[in-house]
Amino acid sequence: MTAGAATPRREGVRFDVGARAGRLARSAVVYGIVAATGAIIVGQWLGVSPPAAYGLCSACHGRDLADWTLNHVEGKHLFVTAAGAGWPLLTVVGLVAGSFLAARRNGEFGSINIGGNVRQFGYGAVVMCAALFVGGCPTRIIIRTGFGDLAGLLALGGVAAGIVGATLSMRWAARR
Amino acid sequence: MIVSFSSLGLGLVVGYLGQRSRMCSIGGLRDYVLVRDTGLLKGAAALLVSAWVGFGVVRLISGTDAGHGLIAAGTTPSGLRAVAAIAIGAIVLGFAATLSGACPLRQHVLAGQGRVGAWSFLAGFYLAAVVYSSWIEPSIGSWVL
What number is the ipTM of this complex? Predict the structure, then answer.
């Protein structure tokens, strides 16, 4: 009777822990804390620097990986930061793979085509050029601001102004 | 080699959590302006506060010369032209990313879960990276900062 009573209790605890972990993973606040902490750890102690506050960036790390690949395959001499000069930075590969794993695990993976792909291609090109010009994607701009980077704070203000301007213009266009 | 493994590991974790939380750096402000939803904005605030606290702790325990007070050393724009360039570049970045529907990191996450538009975005993204490194950056130099 004791063993029979103990087994359901253990399962109940395990289920509760799993459900709580699932709820935490869906929290944007948890994402922010984990992403910032991870970026600081890999930047400070695992070699992803210089430059400073370089632990997580989808634009700069993507540029480094693309340039590193071309430098090694084609023998070119494109710019790669010191962090990604020796061994490649695989952050962007991890992002896609991690998202793929999460989507497959939770039954959300599926090829969805809602059109506008040429437009998206153009937006991608503009976003990369602008991100490299100001020194990082919006995520790294936030991390740089937390680092105390004055240029990052200025860029964060500019990005916020761009977001508000684009959102209001889209709403205005939708109401016409 | 540790650089590759650590960056891959961080990418996996952030990609997994990014897919589950649907977090987007620009989506927070966009959603707030559109529908007054603060869910993603709290995530961006958590990212900023965690980075600020984390770098402060790192400075305390490692005694690095990363700067004094709130402003890190060597991060001040070099002049009015640099300030204007950063501001205009950042406005273009925010505007284009909002029109594309998500920030670059979120586009990687969307590509991982099968969105075809995100793959088109990433094709233009990486093509532009090579174009920028090959022709644009050598012509403008590093006068922004």
Answer: 0.92
